[in-house]
Amino acid sequence: MIFSDGFKRYREEIVQLSQVEVAKRLNISKQLLNKYENGKSQFPDDILRKLVNLYQLSPMDLYNIISGKAYPEEHSESTMVLRERFEDTETERAIELLKKFPQLRSLIISASYYDSKKQEKVIHKFVSIMKAIEELYCFFDKIRLNYY
């Protein structure tokens, strides 16, 4: 197994994120991540550092990925621990964001008092707005890249 396959396998089996989700967290396109994971392009150092940070990899975890020993089936307990550690880190990031932006925290707290039907409606609208904003950012990035 080559090194890029190890990262792909880790993403799929351990952190259980799609390429789109990881690409967003790395601030790169899904297509570029696909090239890295399929060995068509080498992972640059800055992306490797971001992946190590994103996945919360210990030196041993990184060694296992690079050497192709990334968590075979018989290590399902360690796989579960790694997944939980990743999820805890993601939750901590979300909490830090809520601390940093009290208005967002306030909105979420208010929504938590709604009945479940209204909560679902509000969250659905919030997610739709966030997706629209993301699409706008992507659109402007493409314009900027074509302009320069």
Automatic annotation (TrEMBL):
Name under which the protein is recorded: Helix-turn-helix transcriptional regulator
Alphabetized PROSITE patterns for the sequence: HTH_CROC1 (PS50943)
Residues annotated as domain HTH cro/C1-type: 7-62
Domain of life: Bacteria
A Pfam family recorded for this sequence: HTH_3
Entry-linked InterPro entries: Cro/C1-type_HTH (IPR001387), Lambda_DNA-bd_dom_sf (IPR010982)
Native organism: Rossellomorea vietnamensis
GO MF assignments: DNA binding
Gene3D superfamilies hit by this protein: lambda repressor-like DNA-binding domains
Coiled coil: none
